[in-house]
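Can't attach files on this board, so I'm pasting raw text. These are the components:
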Amino acid sequence: MMRDRMSAGPMSPEAIRAAADGLDASLFEPAEFDASSGERGGYSNYSYWRSTARGFIKNRVALVFLALLVTLLVFTFVQPLLPGQKSPTKIHIDPATGMQYRNVEPGAEFWFGTNTIGQDLWSRIWSGTRTSLLIGLIVGAVEMVVGIAFGAVWGYVRRLDGVITELYNVLNNIPTTIVLMLLSYILRPSFRTMVIAMCATGWLGLARFVRNQIVIIRDREYNLASRCLGTPTRRIIFKNLLPYLVSVIMLQTALSIPGTIGWEVFLTYIGLGLPVSIPSLGNLVNEGRQIMMSPELRYQLLFPTVVLSMITISFYVLGNAFSDASDPRNHV
Amino acid sequence: MANGPAILEAKGLVIKFNLRGRTLTAIRGAGLELYEGETLAIVGESGSGKSVLTKSLIGMLDRNGWVDSGSAMFEGRDLARIKEERDWLGVRGKKISMVFQDPMTALNPLLTIGAQIREVFELHHGLSGKKADHAVVEMLERVGIDNPEERRRQYPHEFSGGMRQRVVIAIAVACKPRILICDEPTTALDVTIQAQILGLIKALQRDLAFTTVYITHDLGVVANVADRVAVMYAGRIVETGLAEEVFYDSRHPYTWALLSSLPQLGVKGRPLYSISGTPPNLFNEVRGDAFAPRNPKALKVDFVAEPPEFEVSPTHRASTWLLDPRAPRIEPPPAILAMRAKLGGAKLGGAKLGAVGGAL
Amino acid sequence: MSGERETVLELRDLEVSFRLKGGGVFKAVKGVSFSIYKGETFGLVGESGSGKTSIGRAIVRINDASSGSILYKGREISGRIPKELDREVVRKIQMIFQDPMASLNERAKVDYIVSEGLYNIGVKRSEGERRAMVAKALLEVGLLPEFASRFPHEFSGGQRQRIGIARALIMEPELVVADEPISALDVSIRAQVLNLLSAIQKAKGLTYLFIAHDLSVVRFITDRIAVINKGEIVELAETEELFRNPLHPYTRALISAIPQPDPLVERKKVVMVYDPKCHDCSTDKPAWTDVGGGHFVLANEKEADAYRARIASGP
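---
Top answer:
Structure tokens for the assembled complex are below.
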């Protein structure tokens, strides 16, 4: 081609064109065809979980709260192992006077001060947080298992829909407060009673939620396809339905944990909570509330409520951020 | 038809989208003209960019999309440069209006259809009271809805799919637009209803003298309505011409493939001509002719350089290296030859029929 | 002629009803009867709401038949059936769905999706055998075996539809119910899938029930066609016979509306409109009538006579 261009004389239209676009004439030959190359191309590399993670990471506020919550969680469990920590239940006595260190203000010795009977508030708060979080997590886990199991059967097995709906209506119409109070009366106040009482009522909401979600997706074509293939109900629930609901179930559970802690505080307030010997956020808030009227003692209410708020707000923010990030409609 | 002045002229439009942190080039330099009073059909599969192209003309691109370069001149304004929503208000729904595939999304389920049409008359023609009511009834009658006096008080869900689409069309033409864009207007409808709706749009176009743009993947619809056809593939217009030219004398291998893969043109008992693979991923840069990887008869040059537009006739252009004088003579598939034979040796738009790159 | 052929599936007076929210009952399918012979492609054509999908779903037992019967090789398969027969029917009757975007489980890998049915039919297989079967099924539909480890969202519509076909094929069915298998696909992909369905049918001697609204596609692929309108079959004939001599006014309207990719034909096209009032049923009730050569039409006696005369006089 180079020679063409340099040769003297008028150029043919073809030669002019070739010179202008610089394409060699040899290119104008049939190319080899590979059918499978077309098969390989064209697919997107979209991944549900990767997009969810990306959406979550973009949410700065959520990340801050995630860091806060993780720190809080880790610290709660690590705190007793740290050096120089006091027992949460020991009543400290001033060796000079033989009197209890009552209502000592926060300082170098007692970082968060002491309460009305001379217990160290710092260690009580972390011990209480540990108890409350443990209740929250255990109840959350039980609710999740029971709620999902019930909700899935309720939503997918049409024959049982009527029966379970009636059962739900009956159970749901008994006020939760009454159930909680009754159970706490019958059983002796203890950590276990608390967990049993809250598990007994909490799963209903999640079961209903899961049921509604499953009713929405159960007749999608991919589920009909599974039925055509003779897939048993149990596997349809585990392979087809629940994987679609992971994100929303996670959100519900995340929100139920602070909810449970809130109930614990409420039950303690009405006198049906954990015994005073077990520190919990409920007990601490309750103790603080009783002396709320003297301004110089308000720190005893302030510290537990700050921790309680941090936990609650973190779970809410994280739950919502995760729910936004995992919604495929936001995966733009 | 194609002789009048162009009322809309788009040149070198490039439209991009931001998607999951990556940039997708949905339209890779597309140009088209629209002539007063004609019906242009833009044909392409999903992802070819046909909807994006027209949405950009009425400022309805999704928020993550933008016109990167190019122009679209309409009544002395460059539509590609309009940025503000309020600047679109004078164009969209007034000069250019649109009919969508799913009539339910275009209608407000909480308002009677009378109220929805009336709104247009109040907004664009300043009618009110009895006059507006009268105009609504007249418009409903015009789009073939029986009993308009009664039906204008009904809600969208009380209408069947076909009737709803008639209402949507009534709303779209009530503002007396210069251009009506119909995006797959009959895809969701049964074939018998489809024929009626196409007939209705044609009749309205005759009476109200607007220009129509159809966006469709259905070549049967195109054959029915179009004066001119533009074939889109992977964000470019690969072939454009009068309907006769594109159907009976197509030149681009993609147009060939599209036409010959239709069962209507197939021979029973024999495999249909089929296009292997899938359209390219527009996240990646497309090199050469986008259709080449799926074209068994592609030339080497198709993988190297993007083909320019070659003129087949004053009204017919195609972007394929097969039209380059250096290209070898390549025989189109049998179904295309059969289509050519339908017209016999007739001349089309000044161009002699024949195999590309040589005489028949 | 058709009497000697083996009947794979027979519907007798099939009715499918749905309970409406308001408390009423909606009859989607009203007394439909037809037989499908071994090795043929039987087309069921109708517009939206005609009940064609309900029939397909009743055959694969997603919908219950409210009355009438569905016989697979002479054995009743609707309602309660023995477990043994149930297993056999699951294997032998498979379905291909309309929307490839909705019919695959997005959270499962192609490997599981394709072999899902294998887990259910009670044959013990080693993991290696199963994988080999998946690879074979994928190759049969023109996909690469390496796709097994991917999730469905990585594939285009045409590829996804082929995954759906592989999932049905791995069961080694005898009858495949294809419910609008190409109408949700792009034009350039449709031919691919149609060719694939034909090739598989030839290779494996499959029988198809092809449900569609698009007569041009049905004409290309089927041997016989039944036209259904509002839950009733109005006409049934061999494909070319039906197009040569469409008798029922509804069939004629449908055929007249088929879009042709040919501007000269399309511009001259006259679409007929079907008006149900054109039948005079006051004294003479319509019945399912053979007007000759296996061409059935829903007509009363007067109409039937007119139809016979029309066939005799030639198209």
